[in-house]
C-alpha cells in the first residue's frame, strides 16, 4: 500500500488526500496513491489539521501528541506520522484499502 508505510522507528507514515468541510469525518477510499479522508471541520485557522489529528489519534488508539503533520499544512495532500500505533491500529488502517 503506497499510502501506508511503516517507518524504521516503529511509527507509521500515512499519505492522505483531505477534503475539509464535509458532512462527517470518515475515510472514503483510495485517491491515486493516497487515502482520501473527509473532514467535518472547515479549512480555516488550522481547524481541519486539528480535527485530522484528533480523528487519527482516536482511530489508531494513540494520544493526540503521537500524531504529527510531516507535510501539507495548507494543502489537501498531507503526510502524517503516527507514533506508537500497535498492530491493531495497523490492521485497521490496512483494512481500509
UniProtKB/TrEMBL annotation:
Q: Which residues form the signal peptide?
A: none
Question: Does Transferase show up as a keyword for this record?
Answer: no
Instruction: Extract the Pfam families matched here.
Output: DUF167
- Give me the segments passing through the membrane: 50-71
Sorted UniProt keywords: Membrane, Transmembrane, Transmembrane helix
Q: Which Gene3D superfamilies match?
A: YggU-like
Q: Which InterPro entries has this protein been placed in?
A: DUF167 (IPR003746), YggU-like_sf (IPR036591)
Q: Tell me which family the UniProt entry assigns to this protein.
A: Belongs to the UPF0235 family.
Q: What is this protein called?
A: UPF0235 protein GO608_10995
Q: Which organism is it from?
A: Aromatoleum buckelii
Its ancestry begins with: Bacteria, Pseudomonadati, Pseudomonadota, Betaproteobacteria, Rhodocyclales
Amino acid at each position: 500500500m503506497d499510502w501506508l508505510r511503516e517507518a524504521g522507528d516503529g511509527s507509521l507514515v500515512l499519505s492522505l488526500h483531505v477534503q475539509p468541510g464535509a458532512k462527517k469525518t470518515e475515510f472514503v477510499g483510495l485517491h491515486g496513491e493516497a487515502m482520501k479522508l473527509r473532514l467535518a471541520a472547515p479549512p480555516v485557522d488550522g481547524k481541519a489539521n486539528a480535527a485530522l489529528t484528533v480523528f487519527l489519534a482516536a482511530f489508531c488508539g494513540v494520544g493526540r501528541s503521537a500524531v504529527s503533520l510531516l507535510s501539507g499544512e495548507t494543502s489537501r495532500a498531507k503526510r502524517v506520522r503516527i507514533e506508537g500505533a500497535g498492530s491493531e491500529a495497523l490492521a485497521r488502517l490496512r483494512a481500509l484499502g
